[in-house]
Amino acid sequence: MNRLSKLIVSAAIAGLMSSAALAADTIKIAFVDPLSGPFAATGAQGLAQYKFAADELVNKQGGVLDGQMFEIVPFDNKISAKESLIQLQVAIDQGIRFIVQGNSSGVANAITDAVKKHNKRNPDKQVLFLNYSAVDPALTNEKCNFWHFRFDANADIKMDALTDIMAQDPDIKKVYLIGQDYSFGKAVASAAVKMLGEKRPDIEIVGNELHPIGKVKDFTPYARKIVASDADAMITGNWGSDMVGLGKAVIEAGYKNPIYTYYAATDGITKTFGEDGKGSLRLVGEGQLNPPVSDRAIAYTKAYKEKNPDLDIGQPRIANVMEMLARAINDAGSATDMVAVANALEGMEHDSIWGTKVKMRAEDHQAIQDVHILAHTDDGVTFDFDNSGYGLVAENTVKMASADIPTTCKMDRP
Amino acid sequence: MSLIIVNLLDGLVTGLLLFMLCSGLTLIFSMMGVLNFAHASFYMLGAYFAYQISTYLGFWVGLLVAPFVVGLAGALVERYGLRRVHKYGHVPELIFTFGLALLIEELVQFIWGKSQMAYEQPPALDFTAFAIAGNAFPAYKMFMIFIAMGIFLLLLYILTRTRIGMIIQAALSYPHTVQNLGHNVPLIFMGVFGVGTALAGLAGVIAGPALGTFPGMAFQLGSIVFVTIVIGGLGSLWGALFASLLIGWLQTFAASYNIRFADIFEFFGFTPPVDMANSALRDLWTLTVPQIGPILPYLLMVAVLVIRPQGLFGRRET
Amino acid sequence: MNAPAIELSGLCKSFGTIEIIRDVNLQVAKGERHAIIGPNGAGKSTLFNLITGKYTATAGSVSLHGENVQNLKPYQINRRGLSRSFQITNIFPKMSVFENIRCGLLWSMGYKYSFWTLVNRQTKLTERTDEILEQINMTSRRNDIAGVLTYAEQRALEIGITIAGGADIVMLDEPTAGMSHSETDYIVDLIRTVTQDKTLVMVEHDMGVIFDLADRISVLVYGQFIASDTPAKVRSNEKVQEAYLGAAMEAEH
Amino acid sequence: MSVVSENASEATQSPLIVWSQILPWIMASVLLAALPFVFGSGSALTIMNQMAITIIFALAYNMLLGQGGMLSFGHAVYMGLGGFFCVHLMNMVEYDNLWLPLPFLPLFGGLFGLMFATIIGLFSTRRAGTVFAMISLGVGELIAASSIIVVAFFGGEEGVSGDRTMGPTALGIDFASQKEVYYLTAFWLVLSALAMFLFSRTPMGRIANAVRDNEERAEFLGYSQRYVRLISFCASGFFCGIAGGLFAINFEILTQENLDLTSSGIILLITFLGGVGFFIGPIIGAIVFTMLQTVLSLYTEIWQLYLGVLFLMTVMFFPAGLTGLLAMHSLPYRLGKFSLLLVPYAKMALPALVLVLSSASLLELLFHARHASVGENEMTLFGITFDSHALTPWIVLVVLLVGSFMIVKRQAPSLYDAWQSANHMEPRS
After folding, report:
1. A380, exposed or middle or buried, with CB in 10 Å at 0-12, 13-18, 19+?
2. Where is D108: in which H helix or E strand?
3. Which of D77, D88, D134 to substitute to test the interface with B, most B CBs within 10 Å?
4. How far apart are CA C131 and CA A299, in angstroms?
5. Class of domain A156-285+372-398 (CATH, top level)
6. pLDDT per residue over A231-257, tens digit each?
7. With CB atoms 3.0 to 4.6 Å apart as the test, which of B7, B139, D129, D164 could cross-link to B129 if both were Cys?
C-alpha cells in the first residue's frame, strides 16, 4: 500500500512539472549545461552570457518576428549524457525548440544523436541543436547532421590556425604534446602531429603523451619530462584543474617557453596563473576582447561586467549564437518551422560584434571565423579575467581559419 | 640519472603528503573502527580555510590557524554526528562519512563557489631551491617535505614517548581493551577524530597552493587515501608510511617513463596485430604506462587484498 | 565401521611461539557423552576450534569416523555430521526463532544453495522445524525475533540450531555458562533429550552438569590431557585433584 | 527495529496462492499499466522509465547490501557493462543483421552482468566486510578508468550509442515512441522485482540473510559463506545487467558515467535512503531520488546540498531509511492506536513545514545574494518575487525560522508522549 501511495505522489509531481504552461509570446531557448557538480562554474558562466546576450542583442532590439522575445531556460545536465537526454525531453515537453549546449563533446554527441532521432520520430516537434563549445571535429564530419550547428571553431580548425602561427616561428624546433586521455586529447595530439608534419617537417615532436583525465593529483613528473626534453614549445588540450595543475607544475619545474593551450582562462584559472603564466601561456581561440575591436564591443563587454562583476566573457561566440539565431528566425519568418530556420542558418554570413566575419558553412554546419592566438598577460589588458588584472590579448590572427579545409560530412537533408 | 634523483624527491613529496592524510585516517580507524570516507574532505576544508585566512592575514597565519579550525570542525562532527550513528554499527558509520563527504563538497561550493581559488604559496618561499640538470626544485616543495617530516617525527614522539601515545598504541593493537582501562572513551574518540582531521587539514593547507584549491580536490584524493591505508594494512602507522611512500614513488615513476605496452607484449613474444586500426585490442597495444599511472594503486590494492587481506603490515583481520 | 566418532592424534597448535595445544590424543566412541574440563586458558576452546575446522592444527590430525578432516573448512566438517555450539551465544539475532531453526535444517534436508524453491512452500521443512521447536520447548516463541529472547532461551535456541541438522556428533561449548540453577537444570534436560543416540562432546565448568551428563571426562591442563576416564575415576585421580579440581573448586566457591 | 524478519508470521501454512501476498503485485502492475494514461508527456515517461531502471538497479544492489550484508562501492560497473553489451547488441542488430527482438535485449544484458559478476566475485567474495568493500572500490575504479582507455568497447568519452528501432518488429511495435518503451520497461520492472522478491524467499535467499547476520554460525550449519556470497553477488550482477539493458533501450547511449564511482555512490545513497532492511526500501529510495534529481534540480541550483542534508539526516535519525520511518507506524496501526498520533501530527505539520521551507528559503536567499548577477536582485520563491538584497525578506525568513523552530520545540514533548503511548503494548494476558 505504501508503495502505491508513494507512486501516486511522485507521479503527481511529475505531472505538475510536465504541465508547466508555456507562454506564446516568448521564444524559449533551452540552455542544457552543467549547473551543479565539478563543471558548474563553466556552465554558470555560459548561462550568464546567454541571458545577457539575449537581452542586449535581441530583446532590446525589439525581439524577433513581430516582437517575440528570447528567453533562456536553464536545464542542469550535471555534465551527464543521461541527464542531458532527460532534460532535453523535459525541454521539448515545455515546447522549447532550440537547444544550446557546449560543455563536453561526449554530451554534445549524445544530444546530437538524440535530436536526430527525435526529429525523425516526431516530425511535428522538431528541435535545433546549437552547439557553442563542443569542439570534437567528428560533430561536423562523420557525425554531422542537419539539426546541429557549431559556432565555435573545432579542434582541427584551432590546431590549423595554431600550427600556421607556429610554423612562422623559426625558433621552434622541438615540440612537446601532452593531453588528457580521451577523444579530445587524442584529437588534439593527432592533429598537431599531422599538421606540424605538413607545415614544418623539420620540427621534432619530442614528446607525445596522454595522461588520465581528472585523476592526476601532481603533474610534477610530467613537468620533469617536458623540461628534460628541451622542448621549445608545448601544446596541450587540457582544461579545468588538469590545465591548472599541468601549467603550474611545468612553470614551477623551470620551463620558460610557450605553452599553447585551448582552455586556460577564466573560471579562476587566469587568476591562479597570474604572474607565473605571463610570457608562456597562450590560447588559441575565437573572439578578441583585447585590444577591443570596436566601441560596440567595448560597450557590450562593459555592460556585461557591470551586470556580472565576478564573471567574464569567456565564450564570446555566445553573442554570435544569439544574433545569428535571431536573424535566422526573422529570415525564415517562423520560430516553429525548424527546417526553415535551419535552412536560413545554413550559409549565413554574419558580422560579429567581435570584429570577425562568421560564416556558417552549409556543407557541415561549422562556423568559419577568425581564430586568434591570445597571450596571457597584464600588458594592454582592457578587459581582464577573474578580476585579476590579467587577461588575454590577441597576438596573431588567422583570418577565416580553415575555410578551405574539406569536411567529410555527408549531410542528410529533410 | 639526475632525473631519477628529481623523481625520487618528487615522489617523496607526494608520498609524505599522502602520509599526512593516511596517518590521521589510520589513527581514526584504529581507535574507532571508522573508515572515515570524508577524510579527504577535511583536507579540502584545510585548503579553503587557509585560503580564506590568508586573504586577510597572510599564508603563515593560515598555516597555523586553519588546521585547528579543521580539527575543531572534525571534533564537532564526531560529537554531534558520528557519535549518534555509532550505535547503529559500522556500516551506517561508513555511510555517514560518505554522506558527509558529499555535504562538505556542496557546502564548499555553496560558500566559495565552483571556481579554482587563487591560493598561493607565500612569496618568501617562491624561489627555486636548487636545480638538477635544468629541473628546478621549488623551495616550497622543500618546505612541504620539512613540514611532513616534522609531523611524522612529532607523531612518532607522541606515540612512543607519552602516556596518551601509549593508550593510542594499546588501542591500535587491542581495540576492545582500552575501554576497560577506565579512560574516557568518548572524549578520546572526539580528540582522536579532531587530531586526525586536523592532520588532514594541515595537509590541505600545504597542498592547496601546490596542487590547486578547487571543489574537486577532495574527490580526486579521496579514494586513494583509502587505497593507501588498505595496502599498508589497516591500523598500522608504519604500514601507512610505507604504502604512502610506495604509492608516491609508484605514481611518480609511472608518469615519468613512457614505457609502451607494445614493447612489453613484444618482449613476451606477442606480435602486434597487422590491422591495428581495426583490432579489438588496439587500445591495449597503444597504451603507455603514464596513461595508467593513477590507476596502478587500485590494481596494487586489489592484488594485495586477494593475496594478503590484512594488508602488507596489518596484523588484524579486517 | 568401528572407527571412533572422533579421533585426535598428536594434535598441536601454536599461535606464534606460544603452544596452546601440545600433543593431544583422544578417542571418542560413537554414542559416547564426553566432557572436556580444565582451568581457564587450558586450551579447551582452541581444541574445539581445531576439531570443528575453525583453526588448522600446527601438527597432528583430526579424524571423524575414521576419515581425516584435517584442512577441511567448517562447513565441510559440518556436512560430515559434526555440529557445534559456541561459548558466546551465536544465533541469528535478527531472524525469528522459527527461521533460526529452519536455517539449521536447510543443508541437511538437501536444499543446498537452491534458488528455485520457495522455503514457505516446503511443507516437510516447516513440519520438521516445528518438531524441533517442540523438542526444545519453544513453540510459543516461534515467531519472535531471536534477539529479544532471554539468555537461557537463546542458549536453548542455539542448541536447537546445533542439533537441527541431525548431526551425529554434537559439540557444545559451555552450554550452561552464566545460567541460574533452574535454567541449568532446564538446559541439562534439554541436552539429554536432544542428544540421545548421538555422540556428544562438551566443554563445561559446572561440575554438577558434567557428572550428571558425561560418560567420560578428559582433563585438559596447559594444552595437554592429564586424564581421560569415567567421572568416578577422574574424580579420584590425584593428578587431577592436584592440578585442577582443587583449584577449580576453590575458585568457584 | 531496523530489520524486520520478513516472513516470521506468514510461514505457518503454505496454500498455493496467498492473496495477501499476490495482491500488492497485481495492484502495482495495474498501476504501472495505468500511469501513462495520467502522465503521458514525453518527459513524464522518460522520468518514469528512469525511475523503473533505478528501482531495478537499487533492488539488485540491496540484494547485496540488505540481503547479503556486502557493502559495494563499485556496483555501477555491473549495470554499466550489461548496458554497454546491450548497445553493442543493438548495433549488431542494426548493422550485422543479428536477429534479436528488442524486448529480449535486457535478458542478454543480465547474462553479461552475471558473467562479469562471476569473474569478479570469484575473488572479491572470499571475504566480507572491509576487504570486500575495498576490492569493490578498486575494481570499480579500474573498470571506470579502463572505460576511457579501451575505446574499442567503451567508445571513449562519447560512449557508444545505438538505435533501438532497428530490430525485428511485431504487431507494428517498433519502440520509436516513449510509451512503447515505457511498457517494455514496466514489464521488466515487474518481472525483475518479482524475481528478486522470490529469490529472498528461497533457501539461498534465507541463508544469504543468515550469512549476513552471522557468517560463522552459517558456516557451522553446512554452508560455505564464500559460495553464499558469491551466489548473491552473481544474482545481483544479473539484475544489474538487466537494468543496464533497459538503460540502453531507453537512452540508446552508454557512456563512461554509467561506470564511474559517482554512479556507484549514488546507488548506495538511494538504497540507504529508502531503507536497506525492507524489500520496498530501494523502490522508495529510487523514486524519491529520481524526483529530487530531475525535478528539484529544475527549481534550484543547490539541490545537491538539500540532498546531502536529507541523506545525513536519514543516516543520523532514521538509519532504517524512509521505509523504516513508515514501518515505525505499523505498530501503532496494529495496536489500533494510530488515532492517538493524528492530532499531534496535525499540530506539528504546519510548523515543521514552515521550519523546513524557511530554512531552505534562507539558503536560497543567501545563495542568490552571493552568486546572482549584479542588478538581478529579484528572486522568486514559491511564487513570491522580491529583492534578495533588501532587508525585509531576511527578517521575514529569520522570524519564520525562529518562530517555527520554537513551536516545533514546544510541540516536541507532546508528540513524543503521544508516540510512546501509541506504541505502548498492553501486557500480555
Report:
1. exposed
2. helix D105-124
3. D134
4. 91
5. alpha beta
6. 999 999 998 888 888 988 898 888 889
7. B139
Contact yes or no for A110/A89 (Cβ under 8 A)? no
Residue C29 lies in a domain: yes
Q: What is the pTM of this model?
A: 0.87
| Separation between Cα atoms, residue A354 and residue A366, nearest integer Å | 18
> In CATH, what number is assigned to the domain containing residue C75?
3.40.50.300
- Measure CB to CB from residue D8 to each of C79, C93, C143 and give the nearest one: C143
Listed residue (B34, B13, B17) closest to B82, CA to CA: B34
pLDDT value of position A32: 94
Cβ contacts (< 8 Å) between A92 and chain D: which residues?
A: 42-43
What pLDDT score was predicted for residue D429? 42
Per-residue model confidence as pLDDT tens digits over D93-112: 988 888 888 899 999 999 99
Domain A2-153+315-368: assigned CATH number? 3.40.50.2300
CB D55 within 8 A of CB D282: yes
Instruction: Tell me if D59 sits within 8 A of D193, measured CB to CB.
Output: yes
Question: With 90 as the cut, is the pLDDT of residue A359 above it?
Answer: yes
Chain-centroid distance, C-alpha A259: 20
CATH of D19-327, one of 3.40.720, 3.40.50, 3.30.40, 1.10.3470: 1.10.3470
Residues with Cβ within 8 Å of D1's Cβ and at least 6 positions away in sequence, in order, are: D320, D324, D328
The conformation of residue A153, written as its DSSP 8-state character, comes to P
Rounded Cα–Cα distance for residues D230 and D208 (Å): 10
pLDDT at B316: 54
**CA neighbor of C173 nearest in space, from C38, C11, C16, C9:** C38
D163: which 3 cell numbers?
Answer: 538505435
- D230 touching B, CB under 8 A? no
Contact D417, D346 (CB under 8 A): no
**ipTM of this predicted complex?**
0.84
Which amino acid is present at D168? P
Indicate the residue of A40, A215, A254 with minimum beta-carbon distance to B294. Answer: A215
Domain segments of chain A as ranges:
2-153+315-368, 156-285+372-398
Is position C31 within any domain? yes
Which residue shows C-alpha cell 569416523? Answer: C65
The per-residue DSSP string of B255-301 comes to HH---BHHHHHHHTT----SSGGG-TTHHHHT-BHHHHGGGHHHHHH
Whether cis (ω within 30° of 0) applies to the bond prior to A291 is yes
Q: Do A10 and D159 touch (CB under 8 A)?
A: no
| C65: containing domain | 6-252
Domain-located, residue C1: no
Show me where the domains of chain D are located: 19-327, 335-422
Distance between CA atoms of residues B133 and A78, nearest Å: 45
How many domains are there within chain C?
Answer: 1
Q: H or E stretch including B92?
A: helix B90-112
Check CB contact under 8 Å for D224 and C73: yes
C-alpha cell at C107: 543443508
State the Cα–Cα distance between residues B272 and B87, nearest whole angstrom: 58
Chain A residues touching D165 at Cβ < 8 A: 121
D122 touches chain B (CB under 8 A): no
Average pLDDT of chain B, as a whole number: 84
| CA distances from residue A136 to A151, A153, A210, D185 in whole angstroms, order as listed | 12, 10, 17, 33
Q: How far apart are CA A61 and CA D295, in angstroms?
A: 34
Predicted confidence (pLDDT) at residue D353 exceeds the cutoff of 80: yes
Q: How many CB pairs under 8 A join A and B?
A: 123
**What chains are in contact with D, requiring at least 3 Cβ pairs below 8 Å?**
A, B, C
Please report the DSSP string for C219-248 in residue order: EEETTEEEEEE-HHHHHH-HHHIIIIIHHH
- Which amino acid belongs to residue A46? G
